[in-house]
Write a structure and sequence with these properties.
- It is built from 12 helices and 13 strands.
- The radius of gyration is 21 Å and the shape is globular.
- It has about 325 residues and is of the alpha+beta class.
- Strands 2, 3, 4, 6, 9, 11, 12 and 13 form an 8-stranded antiparallel beta sheet that branches.
Length: about 325
């Protein structure tokens, strides 16, 4: 096995006290031609965001013995990664389009890649920064804060959770951001907090559908989502979808929510709102034309404002 030692402490050090600007830098690691590992980093006071791409010709690994005490979120976008951490003797696998939030006093251990390419998006919150966000009076977040104060490691959810479409949208927003200067820093920090809020909310409610559905039902529900991704503008009724994929109403509703943390029509609404926003940003259609295009008639503006927090006309301006 080939191994590379990644020094996260070096990544987050070097900032002058009181400095508020964002640092952007890269780290590349190659060893014996077995593993190419590339980090593209955005470092803000209290937060390190990293796009990671690794190419492996065999069962290769990197270790992270030098890490700050932090709360970490890891989103696997392709491939997979198995981690073995010494602090709590944990051994876990994160597959493609899975993620979790984890805290340990230190992350000394190793991370293995299978053959091929693995890409991930990683967010590291400094412990003090994360704790300032937490409210003791909230049942879930207060429990996390108590564990951090006792230096008890935890996963936000005991199961690896699916990366949701809104999370992928946020990650894409970060990687494609064209803002510069202080506006870029504000944007990046806001998006990191957006990912955190989605993750904590998902962790509070997520239960794998696998506990309730057999493999055939799970596959059919995944096929429903693929169908909706292509036909969300005209998906048909719930009854028609059930008949199309040989599912009863209960299995479809409960299974879809368990897998994707949303109802079938909530997901359709999400896709329509995303399309409507994109069409408005493209500037080729006015609000009425976009409303007709996505099938919201006279209710589009109200639905858009409720979903995004601002009106279509404000976006146009």
């Amino acid at each position: 096995m080939e191994n590379l030692d990644i020094d996260y402490l070096t990544m987050v050090q070097g900032r002058q006290e009181g400095e508020s600007n964002m640092r952007e830098f890269e780290n590349s690691y190659n060893h014996m031609g077995k593993l190419g590992l590339q980090f593209n980093n955005y470092e803000i006071p209290g937060i390190l965001l990293s796009r990671l791409a690794g190419v492996s010709d065999g069962n290769t690994a990197f270790s992270a013995a030098k890490t700050p005490e932090a709360v970490n979120m890891n989103f696997i976008l392709s491939g997979a990664m198995r981690s073995r951490l010494h602090a709590n003797n944990s051994d876990f696998l994160i597959k493609k389009f899975q993620h979790n939030l984890i805290y340990l006093e230190n992350f000394d251990g190793s991370h293995n890649f299978p053959d091929g390419t693995t890409s991930a998006f990683h967010v590291m919150f400094d412990k003090a920064y994360f704790c300032r966000l937490i409210d003791y009076n909230e049942e879930q977040t207060g429990r996390l804060l108590e564990k951090i104060e006792k230096k008890e490691g935890f996963f936000a959810n005991k199961h690896m959770m699916p990366v949701m479409p809104d999370m992928l949208t946020t990650i894409n927003d970060i990687t494609l951001c064209k803002l510069t200067g202080p506006f870029r820093r504000i944007f990046m920090e806001g998006k990191a907090l957006e990912l955190l809020s989605h993750t904590l909310n998902q962790a509070a409610h997520y239960t794998p559908a696998r506990q309730k559905l057999n493999a055939t039902d799970l596959q059919r529900i995944k096929e429903v989502k693929e169908y909706l991704d292509c036909h969300y503008l005209n998906p048909g009724s719930m009854l028609e979808i059930c008949r199309m994929f040989c599912l009863n109403d209960y299995k479809l509703k409960t299974g879809f929510r368990a897998l994707y943390q949303d109802s079938v029509f909530g997901y359709i609404h999400l896709r329509k709102m995303q399309l409507g926003k994109k069409l408005l940003e493209d500037g080729q259609m006015n609000v009425a034309q976009v409303s007709d295009c996505i099938g919201y008639a006279n209710h589009f503006s109200a639905a858009f404002r409720k979903y995004f927090g601002f009106s279509p006309s404000q976006l146009k301006r």
